[in-house]
Amino acid sequence: MTGFEKIVEESLYDIWAKKEFKNPLVTNSYDEIEVLHPGEINSETSGPDFTNAKIRIGNLVYIGDVEIDGDIKDWKTHGHNINARYNKVVLHIALNNKFNHAYVYNREGRKIPSVTLRKNISGDILRRLRLENAEQKQNKNGRLKCGGAGVPIDFATAENYVKQLGAQRFNKKINRIFDRLKELSFLREMNIKEPIIKYELTPEFRNKKFSADDFKGRELWRQTLYEFIFEALGYSHNKAIMRKLARAADVEFLSKLPKDGSFVPLAESALFNIAGLTPDVRALPASETSDYTKQLAKDWLEIREFYDGEKFDETDWKFFRLRPQNFPTIRIAGGVRFLDELLNKKLISIMIKKITEIRKPDILINSLRTLFIVKASGYWHSHYIFDKESESYINYFVGASRADEILINVIFPFFVLYFDVFGKSNLSKKLIETYSIFKQRSDNRIERTVAENLGLKEIAKRTIYAQGMIELYRNFCAKERCLECIIGKNVFGG
Fold it and tell me: Is the pTM of this model over 0.85?
């Protein structure tokens, strides 16, 4: 398969760790494979991608390392065949293997079975890889087709179109939140608990005409906000598993914890244990286990008696190649502080009061932003991972830039929906107007690429334009749908 030689390998790591295979795995020499444990992602700068994997190959069970490459030839190109760090590799995974080679060889000359991944993943995953690969290539060269065509791009046309796409993207966020809110209302009405009981939304649900009365339950709004905040805290690498965690350890469960000063440590115990991130204190020497970790384990013994939801595993989380500030441990610690405000300190009511009473948009933005900047405290003030003190202190669990992203992606669409549902159109309009002048503190590579190519750098900090640039890039540029784009039509004469 052409075009995948330089694939983003992190995407392949996720497929392996989550076992997203459409068929049972078979080596290229036709030995059956059972992944008993995919291993632990290697956080070092060199060495195999996964360590301590447990894999049955044929009739034998192997414990060792796993290396994942975009193409089988990368094994030699990257020098793994002469690097002693790769001597413990027991299985090699390659997305592409043109000549179906059955083995690679380590420095000692030992054969290592190889698996061709593309034979074993679905068309949806392949399409996702193509899109990510296209984004990587365009981000790398920093050039869009229309930007390199040598034809002047009309600023007014580009500005209006990008703003229009920004409004569309905002509406998509509202609709996505509304879809989840309706689903939660339906589950409550049917008395279905997720995720233990698997369910399908019936035609009655899809055809149901919802009214404001269906959304009067406070818990519906708190659960919805909780899920979307946690998804935002997970950023791109851990947003799906953060959302699953919020659905499993839901508001109903967390509301059973004390509302006094013990809520934060007990909620940390609950979420870290449900997430599968806490070390097993029974299997570790006391000298290697902090008092904090021991206390989490002790608290969990009591909490788990009234928890009947799903539990996750450490392999569900991504740490590899993340900045420590973005580690899921730090994000969960910050999320617990947010939960304390949401469940015990009337966070939603406080935001409604601010939106209602503060007239100046810039003051309203700053006032809302401060609610989501979370200063570091407690154990995680000096740790990124369990039982290993960090070299420097962590100042914020959630800083100003991440707070901005929460406002943009969650708070504004959430409350526009809230006010619309309950007939307060004046307040929803006020929020939309405030959103339209919002200036974000940071940007990303996609926004910079589009702004530079279309000559829109002077408006790129305005969120509605920045969001439009993301929408333009992902739906048109990365998919090469140039002649379906108003800007592309003008440039290429479509």
Answer: no
